[in-house]
Structures are given as C-alpha cells and as structure tokens.
Design brief:
Elements: H1 10-61, E1 77-78, E2 122-127, H2 132-135, E3 144-149, E4 164-165, E5 171-172, E6 175-176, E7 179-180, E8 184-186, E9 193-197
Antiparallel strand pairs: 1-2, 2-3, 3-9, 4-8, 5-6, 7-8
Length: 199
C-alpha cells in the first residue's frame, strides 16, 4: 500500500500568512480611525455641556468662575492637571475631561501646533481683569472667558470654531500671531477648537 502525505508547501503557507497580516493591518487602521472619530465626537459634546454649565453658573453668580488650581500651561485651568472645573459640579452629573487627557513634555503652545504634538486636553481661562476686552481687541467694556480643546484627532481643526477678537488675521509686524496688545487676539494657533464666552 502506497500512502502519500499531502500538505501545504512553504510558499503556500507564506502567502496565507501574508494575506492574514494584510487583513489584520487594514482592520486595525479602520478600528483606530473609528476610535479617533468617536473621541472627537465626545470632545465636541463635552465642550457643549461645559459651555452650558458655565452659562448656568453665570446666571447664578453674575460672572464666569475664576480658574482654580493647580493651573496648567499658560495659567489656564486644564483637564490634565488634577481637579478640573469642580465649581460646575452643581450643574453637571460629572465634569468631563478629554478622553485621552494627556500633555507631552516639553510642551509648547505653538510648535508643533494643536493636534500635532500628542497633547489632548480641555482648557478654560477667565480674562476677568478690568480692561481685558479692549486689551484683546474684543470691545471696550466687560470681560471674557475662553473654553477650548487643545487637539482633535480626526477632525481638521481649521474647520472648527476659533476664539478671535479684533481684525483677522491678527498680525504682529505683518506676520500672523496669537495676539497684538490693544489690537487683536487669536487663539487658533493654540487650540484646535476655542470659543469666547460672553454674557
């Protein structure tokens, strides 16, 4: 009796393994992209909820809240730095933080820009000192607060709202910049999404 053993050749096995590897890689890319889109959707939803809570706080107290410590980069209250906006607890079940909530070290607001440096956090700053509106080119009286998202993953930050005051683009010596005292202020280069809160 003549028994022959049949099996796969080495080349056939390598081809099958390669195909499985390609399918796994493409599936991982789709999964990663879906996760990024989901986190960005949550970020936009969180900012809407924070904005609503801040206006409820304003209605009750006649002003926007001051930042509480410990403060993060640039003196902003940031979600990555411990307790975040705890004064909003009466207006929300839970005060949200960024889904990734990270900051890369060393951190620079401008290089690389938001969404490119691996830093993902929410930020809030109340410019509540007398003259802050005119100093930033936002008008002559009152104060303002800014609520922001440092980085978005799947959404182009250029398509999102940006807090700006005064002439746009804001120029310093003919070059676009973040601010020119008593003329303009533009938070675009610091955050992928930012809004001005005014009563």
């Amino acid at each position: 009796m003549n028994i022959t053993k049949k099996g796969f050749t080495l080349i056939e096995l390598l081809v099958v393994i390669s195909i499985i590897g390609l399918l796994a890689a493409s599936g991982l890319a789709v999964f990663t992209s879906a996760m990024q889109r989901g986190r960005d959707a949550r970020r936009l939803s969180d900012i809407d909820a924070l904005k609503s809570a801040l206006f409820q706080y304003y209605t009750d107290h006649g002003e926007f809240p001051d930042e509480t410590g410990p403060l993060g980069v640039g003196g902003w209250e940031t979600s990555y730095n411990g307790v975040f906006m705890e004064y909003l607890a009466p207006y929300m079940q839970e005060v949200p933080v960024d889904p990734l909530n990270t900051i890369k070290s060393p951190f620079d607001f401008f290089s690389p820009g938001p969404g490119e440096d691996g830093s993902f956090f929410y930020a809030y700053h109340n410019y509540n000192w007398a003259g802050s509106m005119s100093y930033y080119g936002c008008g002559s009286t009152g104060t303002l607060a800014v609520l922001a998202i440092r980085g978005l993953e799947s959404i182009n930050g250029a398509t999102q709202p940006h807090a700006k005051c005064g002439p746009v683009p804001c120029l310093c010596g003919g070059t676009p910049c973040g601010g020119n005292p008593n003329i303009c202020r533009d938070w675009t280069s610091e955050y992928d999404y930012s809004i001005i809160l005014q009563p």
